[in-house]
């Protein structure tokens, strides 16, 4: 309990300090609310729109989770293929890099046009933006195996599948987890960006829609919320 308190206290104190500086700056410099609302105004906006914010968060989280799950599963399968064929890896890996370097905002409208609006469009954008870290890290883990261990498996006449699933995959787990950690964050960004373009129904709003809508209406307190 004491260790938990010690670890939690510095971030909480820093957060309180930021709130005090924020509030002081708004009051002292008389900053207009539409430019920078104070923390009390933001808290009021959160309280007034809490059900809608919770619903939007749940909807965005659903899109992000589905996108992340698909990217992890598909990325793992692609990495397995890459680890078994250098020709396929050299042929397709540059396209994976290209997909990562293209700004998602540039291709999101096309994705929505091809796949459609709503959850499926959001999931597709989230999937694409979170795919590359899984492929890159998992492929690295599957291919960078200790040569001594490979020799040991060869001496014991291990089959290719045994080497893959008993040596390469277990050895790649740390890299897979690293890719999953990066991908999970990107999937949320992808879901929000997807909501900028794909949206949902007239009664369902994700965080992306709320951000765009509150920005257009100059509801800065709601935007901060």
CATH superfamily of the largest domain: MetI-like
Class per helix and strand makeup: mainly alpha
The rough form would be described as globular
Q: Span from first to last CA?
A: 31 Å
Instruction: Write the CATH architecture name of the largest domain.
Output: Orthogonal Bundle
Describe this structure in words.
It comes from marine metagenome. InterPro entries: MetI-like, MetI-like_sf. It is a multi-pass membrane protein. One of its GO terms (biological process) is transmembrane transport. It is found in: Cell membrane. The chain is mostly helical and 225 residues long. The protein folds into two domains: 1-31; 37-224, MetI-like fold. The protein contains ten helices and no strands. Helix 3 (50-84) packs antiparallel against helix 8 and helix 5 packs across helix 8. The chain is globular and about 75 Å long. 29% of the residues are buried. The mean pLDDT is 88.
Spell out the key features of this protein.
mainly alpha; 10 helices; 83% helix; 0% strand; MetI-like; cell membrane; transmembrane helix
Q: What topology emerges from the helices and strands here?
A:
Elements: H1 2-28, H2 39-48, H3 50-84, H4 86-101, H5 104-115, H6 119-143, H7 147-155, H8 160-197, H9 207-216, H10 220-224
Helix pairs in contact: 3-4, 3-6, 3-8, 4-6, 5-6, 5-8, 6-8, 8-9
